[in-house]
Amino acid sequence: MKPPSAAVAGHTCLFIGLVDIATAISPHVRASRIERIAPYVPGLADEVARAASLVAGVLLVLLARGLRRRKRRAWEAAVALLAVSALVQDLRHHAFVAAAVSALLCAALVLLRGEFHALSDPRGRTRALGNLLLLGAISVGLGLLIVGVRADREAGHGISFVDRLRQVAYGLVGMAGPLTYDSDRVGDVVHVSLLALGLLTASTTVYLALRPVRLAPRHGDGRLRALLARDGRRDSLGYFALRRDKAALFSATGKAAVAYRVVSGVALVGGDPLGDPEAWPGAIKEFLGQCARYAWTPAVMGCSELGAQVWIREGGLKAWELGDEAIVDCAGFSLAGRTMRNVRQMVNRIERSGYSCRVRRVRELADEEKRQLRADAAAWRGSATERGFSMALGRFGDPADGDCVVVTAHQRNADGTQQVRALLHFVPWGEDGLSLDLMRRDRTAEPGLNELLIVAALRAAPGLGVARVSLNFAVFRAALARGERLGAGPVLRMWRALLVFLSRWFQIESLYRFNAKFRPRWQPRFVVYPTARDLPRIGWACLQAEAFVVLPQPAERLRQWVRHRSTGTRGEPTVSRASA
Q: Could you tell me which of 389, 395, 368 has the C-alpha nearest to residue 572?
């Protein structure tokens, strides 16, 4: 858990920064010490002090979050800026209280320097310096353009390029330059525009200097597979720990591991730890120690009730029921009975239309067929970006995944040929289970193919030695089910109405209805988090990890373009779970 002193320091730093900004932009009434010494100091003494107050305030506001997360670089910068803030507040504004608070916080940070130990990206300083030089040069160029296009509104004659360059340099740090204009409105536009460019340069530079560490995924595929071979049947999400974008930390005994991915400073874990539950605490402590070392926010998506209990006990975290996983017991599955009438009629109709299914292990597929299915899955994807993280493998047809199961739906054409129109991809769940990874179908094909594929998989399961199949995850299933029952209270009905409304953009109700067709048993899944105030940040990271929100990454796109140009290939598409 974060020490309280770090949170107090961060909020105090934010307050001081806001005070500095307010005093910099507001006129002061009383004569300040700066004005008393101005006649003896050449230059714009008051403008320099005002600019220093403004810049220090903006930077302190930006550094406040880094202090709350105990970033060492934030501590170093804050100590220097607080000293500047205390000096300026005392000299320029006679603000003794604000100056005293800045000085006291500066002294407290020095005394508590041991608590601010979290590491930032080791490449951050180089990137921050590069950003400062590059974006600073661009800001100067844009500033000269802003000033130059208003040259006809300048007051006075004989204005040189150096005068305009000084105007830009002063304006970027919030100071009044040597130029004046024939209209106050024009002067204000120039001043605000230059200040905005300066703030953009400063904010991006601070962000790059303090950005979270992004470690390259290292998970020891062989060690994780060994844990899955011994204890993989405990969690249907265990196999997804083998995603290539995840790293893993092992307990000291090597009997348990936590697989995770860092997104926007949040270390996301999907499902339970791997391995022996008795060794889970060791792996959890390693993971939480790593989070503390790099100031990551730990979060677990979709863990079981047992996993949530261990996380709460070992990490002092909190848990919230996120939804339910649909699990079908293959031995008891049948299309007979009134409750299965809709599914039975849909499957019979599809089969009469000339469709058939094939159920095979991935190792049974030829390389050419794998490539074709991979291309089909990418073409049938409903979005431009591959979605999925906690319940998605992110690849298809890898030789190491030979035990995965592929179910394909084939349509018989008029010439007697067979055309693949839909597919399912399952990953192993221990020795006797399967967990749904991918569900894709041709949008032009008959509706009901997904139901046909699932029924085919459940029918073929005994021949594959499979006793249970995990289907899709239904978010907030309990609220949807209880909210429509007779006697549901107004709060529950409102909560259900909100979920139904959100289902217009996120497949919440539709996934629940689809899963319920197969009469599964529901296994609750939980999200684990440090504090309630971390939930918005965790939610934002989850949206990015699941690719519901895709932020522009020009640097990564450039690297991919260079790699493709150098290899002469475009790379093969990957696939992961997509909704029905």
A: 395
